[in-house]
Description:
- This protein is α/β, with parallel strands linked by helices.
- It folds into two domains: 45-123 and 236-278, D-Maltodextrin-Binding Protein, domain 2; 126-229, Periplasmic binding protein-like II (D-Maltodextrin-Binding Protein, domain 2, 3-Layer(aba) Sandwich).
- 36% of the residues lie in helices and 21% in strands.
- It contains nine helices and 13 strands.
- Helix 2 (53-66) links the parallel strand 1 and strand 2.
- The model is unreliable at 17-28 (pLDDT under 50).
Amino acid sequence: MSNQKKSTTLLVCLLLVLVLVLSAGCGGKSEPAKPAAAPVAVKPLKVGVTAGPHAQILEVVKKVAEKDGLKIQIVEFSDYIQPNVALNQGDIDLNSFQHLPYLENMIKDRKYDLVMLAKTITFPMGVYSKKIKNVKELKDGALIAIPNDPTNGGRALALLEKAGLLKLKPGLGHKASVVDITENPKKLKIRELDAAQIPRSLDDLDLAAINTNYAMPAGLVPVKDALVLEDSNSPYANIIAARSKDKENPQYKKFLKAYQSEEVKKFVNDQFKGSIVVAW
């Protein structure tokens, strides 16, 4: 091979090397692709309710909230005590079952650090009987049941006073108890029972004051079956409660928006036909 051919071959080789080097420099070093970050799992809100209408309404709230990306886990309780115990202990995030006077009494007695977030619905308390059709038919010494928790007990006594069956010390409102009865002309026997138990005991009673959320699952229709019923001026609107430290949680605002939606309002009006009314 001539020197000229050798020089040409060497030049071509050098040019090829240069092209390869430049190509590598322009492309940069290839790095392995980083795996996509896993989406952060958002825990569902645990919301405590009592069985019956509160739970039914929350099923609708749950569907509305899902449209806004909020998942809700419904936790049912069978009494009025445990939902606040669970909320205060952090076992649930919110609860929806009680009115403000009841919550305030629990905070006072048990030192819970809970707050009201918003109003929900009103369950008018009613007086029921399977033995009489009018409270005027009530005989002397009749047996009457009222809820054994302080606020609902006082509420029941106020309703019995409204019916003309007894009189209470003035100015006590829902704070009244059986010791505050000043007049009992029929010598009525007042028995204090767990609110959830009263509908099941109605056959053995002459009269009973029953919360609507327990009356309805027992087959009672407040606007039809109650002998005496709280009117629309009742101060006992139910509420959503949370722990004080969590009250600004953005998820809670989504929950309130879902609860106080037109879909939920329509469900309440259509399903309960005036026995339960929206309070927002």
